[in-house]
Each structure stands twice: as structure tokens, then as C-alpha cells.
């Protein structure tokens, strides 16, 4: 372990790793005209479309873990950039469905390739993308993401 992180809590290390990843992806996809958040949205949408789904903004928010209002803001910016289209859901006039445009699909494919290369680099210390250590790391991250947080737990300053 790096000397700079001796004694660090797991929460701090997760935060630092997520910040490192966010910055790296931001820099990697910037030449394609995307931010990390926009990439997360279009890459998730691309995967959903490949499965035959035309998701609502709410469904995409659930998939990405982003707030619905933020997804709406990102979708509007991506629509203005010509990368996706927003249409009313014929089954629910309150819902907005999203789909990548042809240009959006091409930009997303290139961005996915760039981020995949970046992911391979990030996972090199664990033996690469297909290593046993990476598979275990993924299982552990998934376990942490699947664990519910108890909303009744508050810090001591709130209880005072």
C-alpha cells in the first residue's frame, strides 16, 4: 500500500479511487465532447438499446445511479449536441423516452473503446481486466453496492 494511504479508512480509499476514475474518464472522453457523467449516461443507454430497450429518463437514472433531475439536465445537453433524442412515451405522457442518434451511437462506441483501454490500465496492478484478482475485486465492489444503507443511522452531531 502506498505510504500516503497508511491508516486511511476504506471509505476514504473508495472516495479517492472514485475521484481518480472520474478525473481519468473526464480527460479521456473530453476529446469526444463528453464529460464523465455524460459518458455514463450514453454508455448505459447504448447497452440498454442493444438489449432492445428504449428507456425512460427515470429508468436510465435508476440504471446509472444518477438523480433523475440530473439525468434530465444531461439528456437535454446531449440532445442539443445531437447525440440523443428525447420523445414522449406513448404509454405515459409524463415520461420521456431516450434514444441515441446515429451520431450519438458512433460517439458512444468510440468513448466505450477509450474507457475500456483506460479500465485495462487502471486494473493492471490487479493483473488486468480478466484476472482472478479483478474478478474478486468486482465481486467485493458489487457486494458493497448491493448492501443497503440504514437511513435511520445519523451522525452524532445530528443527534445532539
Task: Please give a structural write-up.
With 160 residues, the chain is mainly alpha-helical. The protein is 61% helix and 9% strand. It has seven helices and two strands; from the N terminus they run ααααββααα. It is globular and about 55 Å long. The protein starts with 9 loop residues before the first helix and ends with a helix.
Helix content: 55-70%
User: In percent, how much strand structure appears in the residues?
Assistant: 5-15%
Low-confidence runs of at least 5 consecutive residues: none
Number of strands: 2
Structural class: mainly alpha
Q: Helical element count?
A: 7
Across the major sheet, the strand order is: 1-2
Radius of gyration: 18 Å
Q: What is the rounded distance between the termini?
A: 37 Å
**Main β sheet profile:** 2 strands, antiparallel
* Average pLDDT over all residues: 91
Please tell me what the overall shape is: globular
Summed up:
With 160 residues, this protein is mainly alpha-helical. The chain contains seven helices and two strands, in the order H-H-H-H-E-E-H-H-H.
Topology of this protein?
Blueprint: H1 10-29, H2 36-50, H3 57-64, H4 68-80, E1 84-89, E2 92-100, H5 102-123, H6 132-146, H7 156-159
Antiparallel strand pairs: 1-2
Helix pairs in contact: 1-5, 2-3, 2-5, 3-4
Task: Summarize this structure as a short list of keywords or feature phrases.
160 residues; mainly alpha; two-stranded antiparallel ribbon; 7 helices
Amino acid at each position: 500500500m502506498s505510504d500516503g494511504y497508511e491508516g486511511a479508512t476504506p471509505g476514504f480509499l473508495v472516495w479517492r479511487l472514485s475521484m481518480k476514475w472520474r478525473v481519468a474518464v473526464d480527460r479521456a472522453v473530453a476529446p469526444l465532447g463528453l464529460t464523465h457523467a455524460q459518458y455514463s449516461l450514453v454508455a448505459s443507454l447504448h447497452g440498454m438499446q442493444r438489449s432492445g430497450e428504449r428507456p425512460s429518463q427515470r429508468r436510465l437514472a435508476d440504471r446509472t445511479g444518477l438523480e433523475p433531475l440530473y439525468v434530465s439536465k444531461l439528456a437535454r445537453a446531449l440532445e442539443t449536441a445531437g447525440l440523443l433524442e428525447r420523445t414522449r412515451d406513448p404509454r405515459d405522457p409524463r415520461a420521456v423516452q431516450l434514444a441515441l442518434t446515429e451520431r450519438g451511437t458512433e460517439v458512444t462506441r468510440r468513448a466505450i473503446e477509450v474507457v475500456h483501454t483506460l479500465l485495462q490500465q487502471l486494473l493492471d496492478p490487479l493483473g488486468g481486466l480478466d484476472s482472478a484478482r479483478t474478478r474478486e475485486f468486482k465481486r467485493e465492489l458489487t457486494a458493497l453496492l448491493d448492501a443497503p444503507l440504514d437511513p435511520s443511522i445519523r451522525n452524532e452531531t445530528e443527534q445532539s
